[in-house]
Write a structure and sequence with these properties.
The chain is α/β, with parallel strands linked by helices. It contains 9 helices and 7 strands. Bound molecules: nicotinamide-adenine-dinucleotide.
Length: 256
């Protein structure tokens, strides 16, 4: 996609990777609709960025909620061409705990529901709206960028729910791209390693340094801006499709 003079939706856009992507897209002139549960942060970001950035409180797992948000984005007098899925949650628990207790089933369902089903919900509804737009001169109508994790490949002890949810996103990337080829919508997924978002910012400096030391190169945590830069590259690169891209400084996570 050559022009960012389009409408975009970014889920999880009120924080971390989604916020960085929202900022980067808005800086390039896109009319971004931020979809997130965090009302205060989302409204503050939209007010700060001004212009065409708006916030719609959205639960990505809820059909009507996403329909309403996508409708707002599609109504912004430019074609909806970009959807970036960053909304996600973590969960850490072993399949069977040291105390012999099995993994909480509700927590597993919730993690898969937000991370995998929420991503699919936005993917399908955003792609349907994109399919109704006029294609550009390359026949492209839009691009969807999902966020998995290297845990999809190297899930650690206690990451079974999270890794399963992210593995599902990896697995649906190619069939989604194939399904949407007929309407000119590309689908790619980014699988980040350790990125310094509010999630990791809560750790003590010592723990953050130890995490960074395990990364081959560069020996630092990823920055949200690294993710945003890659998301924009994927959006711009019209020949990238159906691919999952690791962004991890060559990190391969050990069992624990
Ligand atoms: N930070 C990392 O190191 C890292 C690494 C790999 C993958 N990821 C993935 O990147 C994505 C973004 O992570 P982050 O680090 O920016 O986290 P974050 O917690 O800063 O942001 C996630 C956002 O998603 C929103 N959200 C959660 N559930 C939602 C729902 N049901 N509907 C709408 N919004 C919802 C939250 O309110 C939050 O604003 C997640 O999918 C995460 O799994 C992060």
């Amino acid at each position: 996609m050559k022009s960012f003079d389009v409408a975009a939706v970014v889920t999880g856009g009120a924080s971390g990777l989604g916020e960085a992507t929202t900022r980067a897209l808005a800086a390039r002139g896109a009319a971004v609709t931020v979809l997130d549960l965090q009302e205060e942060r989302g409204q503050a970001l939209a007010a700060e960025l001004g212009g065409h950035t708006t916030f719609v409180r959205t639960d990505v797992t809820d059909e009507a909620s996403v329909q309403a948000a996508v409708a707002e984005a599609a109504g912004k007098n430019r074609p909806l061409r970009i959807a970036v899925n960053c909304a996600g949650i973590g969960w850490a628990q072993r399949t069977v705990g040291r105390d012999g207790q099995p993994h909480d089933l509700g927590a597993f369902v919730r993690t898969v529901s937000v991370n995998l089903i929420g991503t699919f919900n936005v993917l399908r509804l955003a792609a349907a709206a994109m399919s109704a737009t006029e294609p550009d001169d390359e026949g492209e109508r839009g691009v969807v960028v999902n966020t998995a994790s290297i845990a999809a490949y190297d899930g650690q002890i206690g990451q079974i729910a999270y890794a399963a949810s992210k593995g599902g996103i990896v697995g649906m990337t190619l069939p989604a791209a194939r399904d949407l080829a007929s309407v000119g919508v590309r689908v790619c997924t980014i699988a980040p390693g350790l990125v310094d978002t509010p999630l990791l910012a809560g750790l003590p400096e010592e723990a953050r340094t130890a995490l960074a030391a395990g990364i081959p190169f560069p020996k630092r945590l990823g920055r949200p801006a690294d993710f945003a830069q890659l998301a924009l590259s994927v959006i711009e690169h019209g020949y990238l499709n159906g691919e999952v891209i690791r962004m991890d400084g060559a990190l391969r996570m050990a069992p624990r």
